[in-house]
């Protein structure tokens, strides 16, 4: 039975596909978007998080970590979580030693049966609302065999399936899984390959090619665009993306205005956040942006 590293199973979601849904978040992603709202999703392996506000500076974690590098924050002395391997037994003991639960591990290896059992607890809600299960990440297709087996098992139970993907994955793995799905949500970050690389670490050619094949295969595809200040929020970039999406046959686009809800997660991981303090966008800020796509014949909504 296939396994994957799961970092969250979110119940009663209304924004990740039709109806009431359970969202299964898998760790690991080939992109490094500097605005990522789930930075804990980027690495495949479990990671240690440190909640500074909960920490009382007792040092018990350090007693379990021989040779670990400690750093100071104000009057507190704590371990640099970015240097820790969550799979190490010493690290596990340090997490357990914290009396305030300021240290935690994000990500747990689960098999398909465990995830399926959790999802099926909400089967009545799926049936009443036309909902189902959405597999997300990170990039869920970092775990293609796990995703395929989970989708097949969900379909055996009559559950609607969706996937949120970057589409920057091996085409064979992409096709093998997406053609089983009822819906696919694909992120599009920028229409220019070099600008896409500057913002995400990868170019957009593979994403566009996979998107085109999914649409041609008859998959229900929704393209989603996270609109990020200073990166892709100009009408010029919108025009470029509308043209590229028209080329691959996309007919529906959802705009996702930038928000800073994930800012605190960078602190938990001991990482810097490039957009710290940046004000979020609202739909009314993007009326001209939306119009560019609508004028290109693409159904565009928030």
UniProtKB/TrEMBL annotation:
Coiled-coil features, chain-numbered ranges: none
Needed co-factor(s): [4Fe-4S] cluster
Domain 4Fe-4S ferredoxin-type residue range list: 46-76
Keywords annotated in UniProt: 4Fe-4S, Iron, Iron-sulfur, Metal-binding, Oxidoreductase, S-adenosyl-L-methionine
Radical SAM core domain span: 15-299
Reaction(s) catalysed (UniProt annotation): glycyl-[protein] + reduced [flavodoxin] + S-adenosyl-L-methionine = glycin-2-yl radical-[protein] + semiquinone [flavodoxin] + 5'-deoxyadenosine + L-methionine + H(+)
Alphabetical list of Pfam families matching this protein: Radical_SAM
The keyword Iron belongs to this UniProt entry's keyword annotation: yes
CDD domains named among the record's database cross-references: Radical_SAM
GO molecular function: 4 iron, 4 sulfur cluster binding; metal ion binding; oxidoreductase activity
Sequence similarity: Belongs to the organic radical-activating enzymes family.
Protein's recorded name: Glycyl-radical enzyme activating protein
Source species of the chain: Thermophilibacter immobilis
Biological classification of the source: Bacteria, Bacillati, Actinomycetota, Coriobacteriia, Coriobacteriales
């Amino acid at each position: 039975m296939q396994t994957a590293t799961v970092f969250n199973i979110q119940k009663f979601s209304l924004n990740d596909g039709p109806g009431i849904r359970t969202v299964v978040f898998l760790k690991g992603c080939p992109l490094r978007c500097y605005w990522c709202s789930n930075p804990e999703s980027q690495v495949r392996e479990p990671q240690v998080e440190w909640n500074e506000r909960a920490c009382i500076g007792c040092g018990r974690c350090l007693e379990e970590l021989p040779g670990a590098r400690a750093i100071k924050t104000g009057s507190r002395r704590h371990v640099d979580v970015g240097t820790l391997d969550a799979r190490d037994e010493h690290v596990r003991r340090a997490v357990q030693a914290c009396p305030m639960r300021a240290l935690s591990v994000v990500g747990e290896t689960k098999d398909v049966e465990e995830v399926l059992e959790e999802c099926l607890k909400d089967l009545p809600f799926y049936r009443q609302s036309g909902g189902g299960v959405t597999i997300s990440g990170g990039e869920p297709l970092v775990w293609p065999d796990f995703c395929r087996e989970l989708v097949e098992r969900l379909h055996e139970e009559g559950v609607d399936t969706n996937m949120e993907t970057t589409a920057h994955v091996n085409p064979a793995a992409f096709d093998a899984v997406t053609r089983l799905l009822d819906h696919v949500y694909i992120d599009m970050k920028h229409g220019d390959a070099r600008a896409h690389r500057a913002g995400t670490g990868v170019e957009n050619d593979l994403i566009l090619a996979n998107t085109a094949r999914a649409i041609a295969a008859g998959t229900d595809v929704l393209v989603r665009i996270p609109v990020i200040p200073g990166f892709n929020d100009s009408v010029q970039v919108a025009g470029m993306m509308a043209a590229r999406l028209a080329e691959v046959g996309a007919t529906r686009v959802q705009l996702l205005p930038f928000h800073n809800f994930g800012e605190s997660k960078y602190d938990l991981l001991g990482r810097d956040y490039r957009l710290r303090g940046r004000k979020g966008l609202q739909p009314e800020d993007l009326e001209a942006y939306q119009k560019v796509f609508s004028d290109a014949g693409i159904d565009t909504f928030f």
